[in-house]
Amino acid sequence: MAGEQKWDKVVRTTVWSAGAGCHGGCGAKLFVKDGKVMKVEGDEDHPWNQGRSCPRLLSLTQYMYHPDRVTYPLKRAGERGEGKWVRISWEEAFDTIVQRLTEIGDKYGRESVLFCQGTGRDIGGPISLLAYSYGSPNWVQFGLSGQSCYTPRLVAMFATMGDYAVADASQFLEKRYNDPQWTPPRCIIVWGQNPPPTCPDAFFGHWIVDCMKRGSQLIVVDPRVTWLASRGKYHLQIRPGTDGALALGMMNVIINEGLYDKDFVDKWTYGFDQLKERVQEYTPDNVAEITWIPKEDFIAAARFYATSKPAAIHWGMPIDMNPQATVVAQAISHLWCITGNVDIPGGNVIARPSHGVTAYPYSTAELERLYGQEFIKNILSRKIGASRYPMVRDFRHWAQPDLAVDQVLSGDPYPIKAAWIQTTNILGGQAADTRKHYEALKQLEFIVVVDLFHNPTSMAVADIFLPAATFAEKNSLRSWWTPLSALVKAVQVGECKSDWEINLELARRFNPKGVPWKDVKELFDSRLEVSGLTFDQLAEKGSWEMAREGHPSKPYRRYEKGLLRPDGKPGFSTSTGKLELWSKCYEGWGLDPLPYFEEPPESPVRTPELWEEYPLILVSGARSSVFFHSEHRMIPWLRELDPHPVVEINPQTARELNIEDGEWVYIESKRGQVKRKAKVTPIVPPWLVMAPHGWWLPETQGTEPYLFGIWDYNINQLIPTGCQSQSGYGGGAYKTMLCRITKIKEGRE
Amino acid sequence: MPRMGLLIDYEYCTGCHTCEVACKQEHNHPAGEWGIKVNENIVVRSQKVTIDYIPFPTECCDLCGHRTSQGLLPACVKHCQANCMMYGTIAELSKVMENKPKTVLFAPR
């Protein structure tokens, strides 16, 4: 591209999924000519990424203008799975959807329609608007066993602290690392995550690297030697599914050696004595035996964490995929509570939606503010899983996914007849037991898929396909912790619409009284009212604004200043006003108020006979720098960098199995087999293999029965449903199943 | 005109591929062609695994002359997520190198 090229305009906006595919937050500059985005760069004036970018964002133009992208509404012409579609108008699409969903709702009840989301885009706001305007309580991450992504960690923090918390990399401060208020963490525990390849849960992965350069030393808890693990002061190479035992063992060391913050614990926590008693069961010897981590390693790591104030913990989804994940997350959150690393610079700081604005509702309280307390209480009590799991009933909004798929198949206690699928490629992505979900979806009478490309799910089951916009093609709003941000529309592609536009139009048709806004900007302005800004004002500021000093969404030490509780008193927003190490919430939900450890459903310890037959632990889901879950396999610049569905195997294990690097192998479990290309590498231990998730091959046949290769390559076929925690949240066994590897006899594929 | 180069601090390169794709976008390289390519080096020593990444500027690297002539950084340096790449004169960069181990200096042209 020549330097003298003139742009018609350069749009400064916020990145959030579709396109870059991620949990967003970066500032981007979009260079537009003749109504097309020609180029994208990171915005150097944005405090989040400070000009940096990732491979997925830099491939934006290949994503937006890909020849396979669906850019107008479609309806199915042949049978499901035949891949025959005809173009229709938006008007016809909306009319058909309203007519069919109204018929089904009138006949079977509004709760018979599932509103399914994945993890992408700004989906939480628009899908809740649509589901609740239609009248269904069943907003669900369909397929995600145990709702095992962030929700278990969120509920543990909510129960313990009355708030959520994140590792402080200065992200709440406009001047970032140069703000004199901030101190780098002396120690960061990176627990169950590999942040550099991807930016999880409103956290730019390379902030960890920024902190390392400023002196932070790492403790990395991971069964694999990630790049961060190879740079860590301590690497705790844990057996998957035993994180709870490790957290309890570290607390055993910290409490028994008197390394906790006694003043802080006395003043600000509740239930310390009971916790102290509970951790006595988790002696270093016991914990070493459970976790397979040498005792001296985690003892030293525990001492280092406790004596290195400020210290922060940054954690990931494997925690949610532990058995009884809600107590595992609770135990880890106790570590920052007993060491007094709460809401201090460089510690774990309380994170609230910026400016108090609700864009993607995170909590029941936010939904109540938007839709009314009575309505929300009523609708949440009717969602799937609410009667079995009090925690699921009371915390957040999602129906329980394992029960949801069972209910589709059984019709008990009430029938499920339709699905609205938006931002999720269920069969190519998050669904455990893919075949079960395939069979369940096939039974439904009517299915709408809202996406950007055809994928295995849309090919298998969609009756109507609505084309969604990338972040560059839409206005939207983001308040996920910080800063308050606007997505600013730069261009239009085909007839694509944003999820907000689609859902606002349909919500209005289902419930005209509840939807007074004439367009999405008016809706955003109403959501933004508490910030004192309009959408256009926010966009004009370069698309972001940090909360002001003294606002409850701005750190630090808010518990001392009376900024956390509704009554304005110092303390935390819990019933006791303290950090509840012995959880009154958990007790109220009929659960053990203290953390404990439970073996994974399949493991060398729990099922030794199975371990003899399947002597490897199968971990799925490690992240690639160039893909977001099941997205981006069709983007040339990205696929070239990570072309094959691989399985990582340790060299010793590969030698024993006579497998060479690059050979095709089967991963076999008692649930089936998946084909992968062996990647022989010492970054995995000999007793574990890792297979990335989300694999389908868009360059192959999409029609039935092939469905872009999911039955050959999708690793989540080997993961069962039904392993959810006693609480209903967490426990999806995506990282703890047993398998064996066999060489494909016919040779290379 | 002094010779210009790229300094890579491979203590911090995470192998995220940003430089490679930034270069692709800037120069519209076709498949198989790279202006910069990340190399992975995994060493096992006394059972400790160390992973290093080093981006290597290839034959196609022109140090983004069209950008630097306008006062912009080369596309790879600008976007590097680890901030582990520097652009400058060989003289400046070699001074940085004197004080920073685990660095490598390239003079592609």
Distance between the termini of chain B: 12 Å
Number of distinct beta strands of chain A: 27
The major beta sheet of chain B can be summarized as: 3 strands, antiparallel
N-C termini distance of chain A: 39 Å
What form of chain B results from the Cα inertia axes? globular
Structural class from helices and strands of chain B?
alpha+beta
Number of domains of chain B: 1
Mean pLDDT of chain B: 97
Uncertain stretches of chain A: none
The CATH class of chain B is identified as: Alpha Beta
Query: Helical region count of chain A?
Result: 28
Under CATH, the topology of the largest domain in chain A can be stated as Rossmann fold
CATH architecture of the largest domain in chain A: 3-Layer(aba) Sandwich
Oligomerization category of the chains in this entry: heterodimer
Structural class label of chain A: alpha/beta
Task: Tell me, rounded to a whole number, the average pLDDT of chain A.
Answer: 97
Q: Give the strand order of the largest sheet of chain A, numbering strands 1, 2, ... along the chain.
A: 5-4-17-16-15-6-7
For the record, the CATH class of the largest domain in chain A is Alpha Beta
User: Could you please say which CATH topology of chain B applies here?
Assistant: Alpha-Beta Plaits
Task: Specify the biggest β-sheet of chain A.
Answer: 7 strands, mixed
Can you walk through the features of this model?
The complex is a heterodimer of chains A (749) and B (109). Chain A contains 28 helices and 27 strands. Chain A is of the alpha/beta class. In chain A, the strands form 7 sheets. Chain A has a 7-stranded mixed sheet. A 6-stranded mixed sheet of chain A has the order 23-25-24-27-22-26. A 4-stranded parallel sheet of chain A has the order 11-10-9-13. In chain A, helix 11 crosses helix 12. The radius of gyration of chain A is 25 Å and the shape is globular. The relative contact order of chain B is 0.32. A 3-stranded antiparallel sheet of chain B has the order 4-1-5. Chain B has a two-stranded antiparallel sheet with strand order 2-3. Chain B has a single domain (4-106), classed as Alpha-Beta Plaits (2-Layer Sandwich), CATH 3.30.70. In chain B, 27% of the residues lie in helices and 32% in strands. By secondary structure, chain B is of the alpha+beta class. The A-B interface holds A 1-3, 39-42, 51-55, 58-59, 61, 196-197, 205-206, 209-210, 212-213, 225-227, 230-231, 625-626, 636-638, 640-641, 681-683 and B 11-12, 14-18, 20-22, 24-28, 31-32, 42, 44, 49-51, 53, 66-67, 69-70, 78-83.
